[in-house]
Amino acid sequence: MPITDWPRRERPRERLLAEGPEALTDAELLAVFLRTGVPGKSAVDVGRDLLAEFGSLRALLASSPPAGGSRRGVGPAKWAVLQAAIELGRRTLREELRERDALSSPRSVREFLSLWLRERTRESFVGLFLDSQNRLLAAEELFRGTVSQTAVYPREVVKRALALNAAAVILAHNHPSGIGEPSPADRLLTDALKAALRQVDIPVLDHLIVAGNRCFSFAEHGWL
């Protein structure tokens, strides 16, 4: 049965407006984006099928654009809408970090980094460069590596921090393996970066590791 034939109080879009987006299931939120289903299936049914095919919402949103047509009701245009929604979320969080002390909102920092890094299939090393009020000056990918490692050069991180006139930095990288615990190499790298930046009086406020839905903080574990 198409959604237009459902009672209004049960339709995803109407429920979202009345109760807020948090009241909807993943399949119902997808249905709001999809707008229409396919013959014999509503948009909610298509959303359920997609979640079953990919195993999770995260895997679906990280998928490549469909080539040569639709993937169970999601063609290039609808896939682009989903990706645009993700990017809007990233930019909203980035604006929040620019307007307020990043340390006063660790949740926003984690959410921003998770949206940015958790879906990547290769390791990326990034820096959040902050001003004297701990507001975000720039968020940049500094190095990109393989599935399991990234070559990071402390001198280049120092050069970029000085170029941006940063007063402090937050470092982060992802673990595509999903293992959130830092490796011995991660700890050695953090010490090297901290020492290099200390030479120019720029403190490292945290180093975070994004692994799936987890985000490990060096600062919270007393390792900085």
Q: What's the SSE blueprint?
A:
Blueprint: H1 12-19, H2 26-34, H3 43-54, H4 57-61, H5 76-99, H6 106-117, E1 124-130, E2 136-144, H7 154-163, E3 168-174, H8 184-198, E4 204-211, E5 214-217
Helix pairs in contact: 2-3, 5-6, 7-8
Total number of distinct structural domains: 2
What characteristic shape results from the CA principal axes? elongated
Proper CATH architecture of the largest domain: 3-Layer(aba) Sandwich
Low-confidence stretches: none
Instruction: Enumerate the strands of the largest sheet in spatial order, edge to edge or round the barrel.
Output: 2-1-3-4-5
Assembly type of the chains comes to single chain
CATH superfamily of the largest domain: Cytidine Deaminase, domain 2
Q: How widely separated are the two ends?
A: 57 Å
- H-E string: HHHHHHEEHEHEE
* Alpha-beta classification: alpha+beta
Note down, in words, how this protein is organized.
- Strands 2-1-3-4-5 form a 5-stranded mixed beta sheet, sandwiched between helices.
- β3, α8 and β4 form a beta-alpha-beta unit.
- It is elongated, with a radius of gyration of 21 Å.
- The protein contains 8 helices and 5 strands, in the order ααααααββαβαββ.
- The protein folds into 2 domains: 3-74, no CATH class; 102-217, Cytidine Deaminase, domain 2, CATH 3.40.140.10.
- The chain has helices at residues 12-19, 26-34, 43-54, 57-61, 76-99, 106-117, 154-163, 184-198, and strands at 124-130, 136-144, 168-174, 204-211, 214-217.
- The model has no long low-confidence stretch (mean pLDDT 84).
- With 224 residues, it is an alpha+beta fold.
- α2 (26-34) packs across α3 and α5 runs antiparallel to α6.
